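Final report, Chapter 2: Outcomes

The project's central promise was a pipeline that accepts a single protein chain and returns its three-dimensional structure in a standardized token representation, suitable for archiving and comparison. That pipeline is now operational. To close this chapter, we reproduce one record exactly as it appears in the project archive, with the input sequence first and the structure output second.
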Amino acid sequence: MVDRGEAGAPLRSCSVSDMMGPMVTNRQIDKVLQLVRHTIRAWEPAVVGQIAERSRDPFRVLISCILSQQTKDEVTGLASERLYRLGDRPDRMLALSERQIARAIYPVSFYRTKAKTIRKVCRALLARFAARVPDSLEALLSLNGVGRKTANLVLTVGYRKAGICVDTHVHRISNRWGYVKTTTPDQTEMALRQKLPKRHWIYYNDLLVPFGQHLCRPISPFCSRCPIDRWCAKVGVTIHR
């Protein structure tokens, strides 16, 4: 027997998603990422992705990832170009002094610390990996100054291998959509590894970084122009445009 309301229309049972309100789930993720991909065509891709596309060189991807930490894309891109003119292989870069590297990469954030890190990474690549950037997460994480974000980005854009690079944009947007519920980027990576279909892993960061830089901004995002608005849970959004 079908239950009917006062007007005689059948009553629709509520699903879990109905009761929770808008949120991105795996029912929508293919469509959502398709819309994101279409939207970001208007903007430049993330700088490390551009470097990977031009050079096809995991070493350049690794070094540019280190430079990009807490640094704007335009600064990272110019610093990378200056550095690679001086040395674009581990042996050539290690031949540079710490001061030479620091001067080349200035004004990236923490440029002196990053100069030290780059020399340590080059030394390790020469001593332990025959000058080749490793293509496994575990080996990459063994390098000084390389965390999960950098290691995953080298895997995905440097080698086109499965990984999920979670930076501030991926962490924020995945939670804002209601797709995951986490408090740290590392937790977000693990949650995405459990939930996000593997066919999206490699490109997830490439899509969400420009989307987060230009539209789904940390403060006052442009929700009125967002193609995902109908599904977005807007977790943490207190004001938007």
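Archive annotation: Residues 1-19 have pLDDT under 50 and may be disordered.
This record, like all others produced under the grant, will remain available to the consortium after the project formally closes.
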